[in-house]
Amino acid sequence: MLTAWQGNKSRLKGAVFRFIYIERELKNHPRVRALCDRFKQATVVECERYQEIFNLRAQNFRLQKQAPALILARKTGNLILKTPPGYGIGGAHNYYFSHLLNCIYDCRYCFLQGMYRSAHLVLFVNYEDFGAAIAEQLGREPESHFFSGYDCDSLALDAVTEFSDFVLPFFAGGRGLLELRTKSVQTKSLLGRPAERNCVVAFSFTPDATSQAVEAGVPSVKRRIAAMKSLAEAGWPVGLRFDPVIWRPDYAAHYEELFVQIFSALPEAAIHSVSLGAFRLPSKMFKTMHGLYPEERLFAFGLAQKGRMVTYDEPRGETLLGDVRQALSRYVTSKKLFECQDLSVST
Amino acid sequence: MLTEGVAAPQVHLVVALPGEAEPIIAHYDLVASGGRFPLFVGSDVFLTVSGVGKVAAAGATAYLAALKSPGEIWINVGLAGHGSAPFGTALLAHRVTDGETGRNQYPMHTTTPPCQTAHVITLARPSTQYQEAAFDMEASAFFETALRFSTVERIAVLKVISDNPFESIAEINRARAGALCESLLPVLDAEIARLRALDSGPPAPDLDPFLARWHFTVTEQHQLRALLVRHRALAGAPIGCADFQSAKNGSHLLRQLRERVAALPLLGLD
What we know:
The structure holds two protein chains of two kinds.
Chain A: H1 3-6, H2 9-12, E1 19-23, H3 30-38, E2 43-47, H4 51-54, H5 61-65, E3 70-73, E4 80-82, E5 94-97, E6 100-101, E7 106-107, H6 112-115, E8 121-124, H7 127-140, E9 145-148, H8 158-161, H9 163-167, E10 177-182, H10 188-191, E11 199-204, H11 208-214, E12 215-216, H12 221-233, E13 238-245, H13 251-265, E14 271-278, E15 280-282, H14 283-292, E16 303-306, E17 309-312, H15 316-329, E18 337-339
Chain B: E1 11-15, H1 18-27, E2 31-32, E3 39-41, E4 45-49, H2 54-67, E5 73-82, E6 90-98, E7 104-105, E8 116-122, E9 134-136, H3 139-146, E10 155-163, H4 174-183, H5 185-196, H6 208-213, H7 218-235, H8 250-263
Helix pairs in contact in B: 1-4, 2-3, 7-8
């Protein structure tokens, strides 16, 4: 049952994957065989390396986003990378990894639209190599924090990828910390196993009206809160991510309503961490995204270039973040509140 | 130059042989227009007869692009051999391989294609060493060249099977090629409709009416374009020349447009 795609059905017009591209060397890989069996209706196309398709210059992200293909590939090179400075939830050693590139959701502010030329989903099936890299890093720095969901949604396709089942044992015994960041309600695999105290399931939120306007395909705020509550009740540490914070004329009322919704469902004690960050994008990415969606209101007002970044103009940006921070402080202690100040991107 | 100002996305067809092209020319009421490569022109469909082989296909594709502004729909239509597909089968390429270099390209079908898709291998000369792929002699060069003028989602390779282990390549003649390509027309119609329906967002603002009436420096033209885009996003509708009757010159118009954009209510994102 591919429930992650059900809520997205209208966008994907009923098709799950029309095409699956596989690197030739992987055609007999057990995960590749299993995925091809699962998506029997898909046309399977062999390629040499996924970059032949993914990195092609002359392609249109917007068109592909309407029905992305699945590309099954092997990740080589550095499998874990240091996070940008300022990114983290209190750890001294922060890393991220990307077993999946791109996302089934279509959030208009997402930097992936500006970073990748293709909207196809690339799943790196050599999980064991990711596991080895994580284990090696944990051997060097046992307190390392790992962030999944930087180039994808960590859980939205978990029913297909089964990656969380694979990766969680590497953090058994309280070694390190793993953050799974998501906007999905795909919690079935996590709820089917004992909670890991050092795996934070972090849910990203914008207020409901904003989400409906700029987060196509994302489950409603209500459903995400319900999913988060189920995880918290099962003992999983949950995180709240308000990054990016999005301006609208009536933002204060909308964020207040969102916080009431969340914190009336979830006791403060269940919350591992809360982070917030401004809407921000490298100007080159912003230019690409604006070119893809020139009719998008989000890009048409209140933004200014600051150095190499595009973010809200002042005092709009400072006021917005300050108001949201203050509203949050009524619900969570400052020890749990982190501000993402990295000059990287909005996801 | 060909006529400008056609609303529907223009379709560029590259066909190797006159016999293959004839039913297509008749179907779309195309008119011979001369040229270094035989060129046939309709209101929004253009066809060139490239001749056989990769060099000819690349040359004809570039020639057609040079005559028309790029960024539109490109389709290579023609015959192909195949190891198992029956005679007369229509196939769209999902992978195109240059048989000499091994270089691969991948036409993208972001909406449901009107027929089966297949691997197409472009060979330097006809072959009866059939494989589980279609053989042709133009597709890879056509595709690689068309990619300079459009994006991968809007370029297609449509083939009809003319020979296989049971139907000899020696049987192909002008009449047979014409009949096969005529049988392909419903699929070609459907593929053109599919590619035309691809929604890549609103077109860029039309600056021509503004440029015809006022003078703008290059920098001012960029500013004009950005302001028109911004106005359309915020107001939900484009704004035209008629709204600036009182503008004395380009700078004055830009000032008025800036004021209009600034006065638009910020109604949120919905």
